[in-house]
């Protein structure tokens, strides 16, 4: 599921980036693209941390018995 969410974020940001370039390049486009990159990377990092926590919990449960 995380791979699907990661791919969705990438496609969404690339689409927004392309749409910003339709009227020519503006400095505001760079700011919007940077904000998109930050949100995408934070979302991906959150998914990675949640996955690691789930794995650690699962491993702890396996070692308990």
Structure characterization notes:
With 65 residues, this protein is mainly alpha-helical. It is 88% helix and 0% strand. The protein is built from 2 helices and no strands. The protein has helices at 2-20, 27-64. It is elongated, with a radius of gyration of 18 Å.
From the N-terminal CA to the C-terminal CA, the straight-line distance is: 29 Å
Number of helices: 2
> Percent of residues in helical segments?
over 70%
Mean pLDDT: 92
The dominant shape is elongated
Q: Class by helix and strand content?
A: mainly alpha
The number of E-state strands comes to 0
Could you list the spans in which at least 5 consecutive residues all have pLDDT below 50? none
Order of helices and strands: HH
Percentage of residues in strands: under 5%
Largest sheet: none
Report a brief summary of the structure.
By secondary structure, the protein is mainly alpha-helical. The chain is 88% helix and 0% strand.
How are the SSEs ordered, and which strands pair?
Blueprint: H1 2-20, H2 27-64
Main attributes of the structure:
65 residues; mainly alpha; single chain; elongated
């Amino acid at each position: 599921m995380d791979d699907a969410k990661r791919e969705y974020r990438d496609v969404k940001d690339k689409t927004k980036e392309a749409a910003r370039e339709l009227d020519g390049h503006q400095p505001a486009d760079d700011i919007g693209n940077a904000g998109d990159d930050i949100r995408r990377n934070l979302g991906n990092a959150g998914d990675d941390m949640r996955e690691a926590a789930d794995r650690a919990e699962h491993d702890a449960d396996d070692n308990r018995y």
